């Protein structure tokens, strides 16, 4: 089901905003052929522009073979839009137009080339774009779950690192670091209470240093 079109699509691949239509099993090859032909067209245009620029630098006379150039006496004048309606322009304008079109061609080729290579990869893996996105989301969610397995360890590391970096070596810093260490032991103690019960909690209490047990603001039953 496509959310953008609010329609059910057979073999749904993705919704393409450039063609304003969904891509599925019925029109996927038309979409793929469109991307491939557009990429090939840009490659041809780049080749033609490079040929024109190179010939202009090497031998400009090769580019002035059209019969209409017989009436043009100035070698610095060129005819654009041949053979439909020729327009006389200066060399600088031709070079600027050629460079701009070449730059736009390269930018378009980068985007279309990436899209074409991506769909070639999908066909090699026998996947759709939708399946590829779903698999990536599953992998990301599994990585996040692996990181969140031990939240107490992550909290202890963050608290101790921030506290140690900000407190320094003063007397107040030493006292505050001791409080942070108390917090660390209490977090591990609470984890053991949740897992093992009251008996394990009393056992962990004895492992705390004497000064920690005196400073910890906890009432034990």
UniProtKB/TrEMBL annotation:
Entry GO MF terms: protein-cysteine S-palmitoyltransferase activity
Protein origin, superkingdom: Eukaryota
Primary localisation category: membrane
Enzyme Commission number(s): 2.3.1.225
Coiled-coil parts of chain: none
Subcellular locations according to the entry: Membrane
Residue ranges constituting the Palmitoyltransferase DHHC domain according to the UniProt record: 1-134
Catalytic activity entry: L-cysteinyl-[protein] + hexadecanoyl-CoA = S-hexadecanoyl-L-cysteinyl-[protein] + CoA
InterPro entries: Palmitoyltrfase_DHHC, PFA4/ZDH16/20/ERF2-like
rRNA processing keyword on record: no
An annotated GO cellular component: membrane
Keywords in alphabetical order: Acyltransferase, Membrane, Transferase, Transmembrane, Transmembrane helix
Membrane topology: Multi-pass membrane protein
Residue ranges crossing the lipid bilayer per the database entry: 28-58
Similarity remark: Belongs to the DHHC palmitoyltransferase family.
Domain comment (free text): The DHHC domain is required for palmitoyltransferase activity.
Protein name, as recorded: Palmitoyltransferase
Organism for this UniProt entry: Homo sapiens (Human)
Classification lineage: Eukaryota, Metazoa, Chordata, Craniata, Vertebrata
């Amino acid at each position: 089901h496509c959310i953008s079109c609010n329609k059910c699509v057979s073999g749904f691949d993705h919704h393409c905003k450039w063609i304003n239509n969904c891509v599925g099993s019925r029109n996927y090859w038309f979409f793929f052929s469109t991307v491939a032909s557009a990429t090939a067209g840009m490659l041809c245009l780049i080749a033609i522009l490079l040929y024109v620029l190179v010939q202009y630098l090497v031998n400009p006379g090769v580019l002035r073979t059209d019969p209409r150039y017989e009436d043009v006496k100035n070698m610095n004048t060129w005819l654009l839009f041949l053979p439909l309606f020729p327009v006389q322009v200066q060399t600088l304008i031709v070079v600027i137009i050629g460079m701009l079109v070449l730059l736009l061609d390269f930018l378009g080729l980068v985007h279309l080339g990436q899209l074409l290579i991506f769909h070639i990869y999908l066909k090699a893996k026998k996947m759709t774009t939708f399946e590829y996105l779903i698999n990536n989301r599953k992998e990301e969610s599994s990585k996040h779950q692996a990181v969140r397995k031990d939240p107490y360890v992550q909290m202890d590391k963050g608290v101790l690192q921030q506290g140690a970096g900000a407190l320094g070596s003063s007397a107040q810093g030493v006292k505050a670091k001791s409080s942070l260490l108390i917090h660390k032991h209490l977090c591990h103690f609470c984890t053991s209470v949740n897992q093992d019960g009251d008996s394990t909690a009393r056992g962990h209490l004895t492992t705390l240093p004497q000064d920690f047990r005196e400073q910890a603001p906890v009432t034990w039953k």
